[in-house]
Amino acid sequence: MRIVLYNDTYQHLGGAETYCLELLSKLPGWEQEVHWLAHGNQEPTDINHHVLPHFNEGKFNYFKSKYFFNPEAYKALKDKLEELQPDVVHLHHDRYYTASLAKALKELRIPTVQTIHDYTLLCPSQYYPDLYYDTPGTKSRKDNCQLICSQGSCLPWKQRLGHPFAHDRKRKSIQNRVQTFIAPSSKLKSYLERAGFDNVEFIPFFIDEAEWSFNEERKVDDVLLFVGRVETNKGIHNLIQSAKLLKDEFPELQLLIVGTGSQLEIIRERLDRERIDFIRALGFVDYKRIGEYYNNANILVVPSLDMEQFGLIGIEGLASGTAVIGSDTGGIPEWCVHEKTGLLFNPDQPAELTDCIRRLLSDSEFRRQLTIDGMQHIREVYNPQQHFRKLLRIYEEAKPLK
Question: 280 pairs with which residues across the strands?
């Protein structure tokens, strides 16, 4: 079977790209031919990577491409799909060229499935991460109500005027051209079904434990780790504040921030201005080296403010034998089982995050037990064999929609 994985960006920004790369690596071992089709300015790094340019430069083109139809994108996508002749297309992030891609898939009658990587189909506010505030001195963040909503009542009035029409239009376009939607968390599956998606399958992400080094002799003390997009809605400022509050109690405390995003330079300037040297904002780190950071940290913190559909870095940390703390939101509690594989906290109560960090730094035996139970949880729930058997069945059953 020839499979094309489509993602709207070739740059490795987060979990969607990580998952695509894992499928590219593992599917050939299941006797499948796999290609990655994406948009970007980078040169492809593999013969099976196909990179188209972006067609959404400028505000008008961006809006037209995202919510309506872009003929240039349509032609480029259709030509490339005709060239590749896939048996099935597996969509991932499809935020920028939804209508254009849908038309190409329909005309070519290609069976299509899609993994949903976030809540943007269900909640308009997810398009606007700047709605979340957790920095000192700002107003209280505007919370995601977590309801199935196309009205966008939490949005600023300018976005609210036009967003319901565009949001509903986009959702229907996606529903009309995908045979099976794949939800990596049961929470996301339940929300999709409430929104009228009647063709959703729950398939947890997988992780190959053998590829993640667990160093039983690690001799690191009081090192916290954040991995992900450095954005306000990821709760990064709350984590920095907790680290500052705990520094006097734990003089050797360090916080490593791995990732890029709009807040990276803001955080670096703040650290310089306040002369904070125990927190380091490292920026981009090649994914192949992420395991080194898991193995040189006591605790991985996933402090997201909004609803993470899963939080792939969490199971990477668990597989590496790193204790985890996560927000009690979205799909995070499915791998961060409170008091069993990690600790959960209410993201609206930053003091709870501080208390969780304090507890794990103070109790090394409890921290060790969490890592043992966490690795066992990985083996039972997130193993590759279960994942690929279910995924290949979905591929084989996929039929083009009329």
Answer: 256
AA identity, residue 67 = Y
> Counting every residue, how long is the chain?
402
Dihedral (CA of 82, 88, 93, 98) sign = positive
Distance CA 54, CA 203 (A): 31
The pLDDT tens digits of the residues spanning 267-303 come to 999 999 999 999 999 999 988 888 889 988 999 999 9
Start-to-end CA distance of the chain, whole Å, equals: 22
Q: What's the pLDDT tens digit per position in 41-94? A: 999 989 999 999 999 888 888 888 888 889 999 999 999 999 999 999 999 998
Does residue 113 contact residue 28 with C-beta atoms inside 8 Å? no
Fold match between 2-206+383-397 and 209-381? yes
Runs of H (alpha helix) within 157-311: 157-175, 186-194, 236-246, 264-273, 290-294
- pLDDT recorded at residue 149: 60
The CATH homologous superfamily to which domain 2-206+383-397 belongs is Glycogen Phosphorylase B; (3.40.50.2000)
Q: Does residue 237 have a pLDDT over 60? A: yes
Between 64-73, 134-143, 144-153, 315-324, the lowest mean confidence (pLDDT) is in: 134-143
Handedness of CA 76, 77, 79, 83 (dihedral sign): positive
3-state helix, strand, coil in the chain (%, to 5): 45, 15, 40
**pTM (whole model) above 0.90:** no
Measuring CA to CA, which residue among 54, 48, 58 is closest to residue 11?
Answer: 54
Identify the DSSP state of 342. B
Domain boundaries, the chain: 2-206+383-397, 209-381
Amino acid at 25: S
In which band, very low, low, confident or very high, does the pLDDT at 13 lie, cut at 50, 70 and 90?
A: confident
